[in-house]
Amino acid sequence: MLRQFIVFAAVVFNCFAARVELNWDVGYVFGIRDGFTYRRAIGVNGELPFPPVHVTQGDTLVINVHNSLDVPTSIHAHGLLNNGTNYYDGPDMVTQCGIPPGESFTYVLETKNQFGTFWIHGHTRHQEVDGLHTPLIIHSRKQPVVDYDEELIMTFEDWFTTEFAVRQAYIDSLEDIRTLTSNFPKALINGYDGNKTAPITFVPGKKYRLRVISMSVNNWFKFRIPGHKMTIIEADGVESMPLEVDGLILGPGQRYSAIVTAHDSAQFNYIYNVTSYSQTLFSQGLIPLMYTGLINYRDGAPVKTIPAPSDEQLVWPEETAMQVADKQAPLPVDRRIELTMKKFTHTHHQHQTTLGNTLYKPVLVPTLYTALSMGDLAANSSVYGPQTNAYVLKHLDVVEVVINNPERVDHTFHFHGHNVQVIETGPYGNSSTISREPVAHQQSGPWPMWRDTVQVRGFEFIRVRFRADNPGVWFMHCHLSWHEYNGVAVVFIEAPDVLQKQQSVPKEMVEMCKRQGIPTQGNGAGNQGFDLSGLPPAIYPISVEGAN
């Protein structure tokens, strides 16, 4: 009887699923977004910002992308698992070749059982930095953890005065990156200058679900509405047990849903506060930046003055404090991978950060295509090239990943193809050389939170777990754009034996590579066996530096 019910429920679920189709023309746009600088950016259909995408759990999202840029492009649905369709994940030269200028390609994204707050962004040449991003909201078909009346989207972005390629060429020209001249970005709220964002309207007595999305590439954001509590019910597309906080802290790529209950009276309006900050070299002497906006209960009502406590007096969400709503216990571990961030002087004499001992750099064949074409050798990490930082995972193993950060800079790490259980955070390295509070040791509760993007603060380690139940090639990288560019990343080659039996790359994707002269078979160099001749020279460390 139970089996019949499950089959019936699945049939009903599929009957309500829809096919949502969008046509995106990705091209250059010009304008002033931060209130100061007129510059070229990247938009869709001539718009920036361009509209959020709304679908419902179980829907198929079809995005027909035409590339009107003069360089290749691709898109990534951040947080979507793409189980069974790894080739639609988006990162250039990891799971696909970029879409060439003047050509089109269709992404078919299955939401399946996922719902919550996500975003879509470019994943070729760091085009998300220049505007190619928008929210993706997958509405649930089930009752939420906490009832609410309406929902609103809040997005935070950092916006530089120059295009990513121009700024990165300048950085690459420096013999010592520590001599970088500051170019701290301004903040955008809901797509516009943070100090000129339209008011948010509250109706007395109503409950609002605020879907808060960091589409940032460098900066952290703190967000709070003095005089109002927030109750977190979701992080990164995963429902959480309700957690009351005073405000939210979001690193690049992270998302929250929080319930805010409006006051019963419209006697006063209120001010919300947004703080944009970072510890990177871009931000020397220029942080934090403060922004405010209006919570409008009634046009013309006075703004209530509320004392401003220090951040230390307020309750903020901790990665380990949240508990997952479906009460999953910590997974038992089959394999452990420890990754330590290190500062190196490399063979090209630049000072850079790595995840482990190697800088990730793209190879000549998309790594997914190597995993699909190398037969039994696909289980040997060497065939992917020395700088893919490849880790081959066994099917259904529970993998524990520990990321150690012995430097002052905070990072967020995004796991493609997986949510991960946040098990533990704690101190790592020596923070006594700078003015910063020591990191406390924090263990998760009985039902650790799952999410796809985790913060690793300065002088901290984080321990996360996931089950290797999604055969494919999955990028895991720092979501600070210049760190990703410099190679703070690894690739998980997940169950290549199962992958070869279950998936094949659509013919149009293979042909798209061939038209660009990109090989679609063989090892990382496009050769057979372990012959990696033809790969660009590897970049190796020649000295290790102390953390700072």
Key structural traits:
548 residues; mainly beta; eight-stranded mixed sheet; 6 helices; disordered N terminus
Mean pLDDT: 91
Uncertain ranges:
1-12
- Terminal-residue CA separation: 62 Å
Number of β-strand runs: 33
Percent of sequence in beta strands: 35-45%
The helix fraction, in percent, is under 10%
- Tell me the major beta sheet: 8 strands, mixed
From the alpha carbons, calculate the radius of gyration and give it in angstroms.
23 Å
Gross morphology is globular
Q: SS-based structural class?
A: mainly beta
> What is the count of DSSP helices, taking H or I runs of 4+ residues?
6
Tell me what you see in this structure:
There is one protein chain. The chain is mainly beta. Helix content is 9%, strand content 38%. The protein has helices at 2-16, 164-172, 367-373, 481-486, 496-502, 507-514, and strands at residues 19-32, 38-44, 53-56, 60-67, 75-78, 104-110, 116-122, 133-139, 150-159, 186-189, 192-193, 200-201, 207-214, 220-224, 230-235, 238-245, 247-250, 255-261, 270-277, 289-296, 335-346, 351-355, 390-393, 398-405, 411-415, 420-427, 442-443, 450-451, 453-456, 460-467, 472-478, 489-494, 541-545. Strand 15 and strand 16 form a beta hairpin. It is globular. Mean pLDDT is 91; it is low at 1-12.
